[in-house]
Amino acid sequence: MQYNKKSVEDIDVSGKKVIVRCDFNVPQDENGNITDDKRIRASLETIKYLLDHNAAVILCSHLGRPKGEVNMKYSLAPVAARLSELLGQQVKLAKDVVGEDAKRLAAEVQPGQAVLLENVRFEKGETKNDPALAKAFADMADIFVNDAFGTAHRAHASTAGIADYLPAVCGFLIKKEISIMGKALSDPARPFVAILGGAKVSDKINVINNLIEKCDTVIIGGGMAYTFSKAQGGSIGTSLCEEDKMDLALGLIQKAADKGVKLLLPVDTVCGDHFGADAKPVVYESGKLPDNMMGMDIGPKTIALFSDAVGSAGTVVWNGPMGVFEFDTFAVGTKEVARAIAASGAVSIIGGGDSAAAVEKLGFADKMTHISTGGGASLEFLEGLELPGIACLQDK
Fold it and tell me: Catalytic residue at 200?
């Protein structure tokens, strides 16, 4: 799957009205203060490029899940304020999405200025990819730029629908996502090692399947490892297990063996007698857990095994924590895998969501080649699926 898409640099934007789909879905506290503006800062390169090249910019994004209702708890007002600070110029916020106020601001915005529409998910038609809403967005502008990788796996009116009515290209964020992840999947520096964690095999089956085709080593940790362990006849105590996925797990083990791909599973497990931050950690050999114990993290031998595989890698893709990393006692495995990736010198790609949060929290973010801005989108990309918000853009 080669995404070779036109970006803002491949078209003339001077004097044009450009509608940009950003990902301003930022976390806020109960008073509506933004607690992490990383996603806003990530969009600045594209916005500044357009402003510097004399475009009149109309920004749009979703925030939270207002479900097609106008709910001011999800207003983009705090985002407009933060954007104004970061850009050093006022970014006016429309009172609506495609109504009178939005149309007025879009008509008035001058080259070198930016305005922001209200939360696109205040419109019922957004998540249904309603053509009338997509056309209403398109009517405000001459060019569509999608820079919201985090929602590129959704065919919504503001992520894909607009492209039916306007010339569509990507911004720098999406360009970076698809070039780095695209190269990792099509032409990786080898050995190519994938590390997959998280709770459920069902969430990652297609990713594991696709990566077995491409990788030299596939490492499985996190909650889903217990399904593999039980499938192989191990005892896993009260650990998480998807009983209905055990045959699938065995099938993936067999597929890796047939392809000559190393599939590494935990050899020891850190357990607790209950699910809680205060559970006392005890280490057992994997597949030999007492009935009353729950697996919560990978053990020291597994950390050594996984770190060793990562140490010699040319490319590493990581998606999903190795244990219950929100409890400090059981965050050791995730932390040490992050440390091994940071020290490896490999091209390292962290696939959004929990893994990205873990890397940020542990202070290894600046040691990674690329941290994806989209959890679900990066997973679908690694599955080899076409992402509608990118497929709709013009090819080079």
Answer: yes
339 catalytic? Reply is no
Active-site residue, from 5, 21, 39, 175: 39
Among the listed residues 38, 200, 259, 262, the single catalytic one is: 200
The closest of 212, 215, 216, 207 to 224, measured between CA atoms, is 207
Q: What is the pLDDT of residues 217-246, one digit of tens each?
A: 999 999 999 999 999 999 999 999 999 999
3-state secondary structure of 123: coil
Sheet harboring 370-371: ordered strands across?
262-264, 217-220, 192-196, 315-319, 347-350, 370-371
Query: Quick check: pTM over 0.85?
Result: no
Of 99, 112, 376, 384, the catalytic one is: 376
pLDDT of 2 reads 57
The yes-or-no answer on residue 233 being catalytic is no
Tell me, yes or no, if 182 is annotated catalytic: no
Stretch 247-256: mean pLDDT, rounded? 96
Is the pLDDT at 20 greater than 90? The verdict is yes
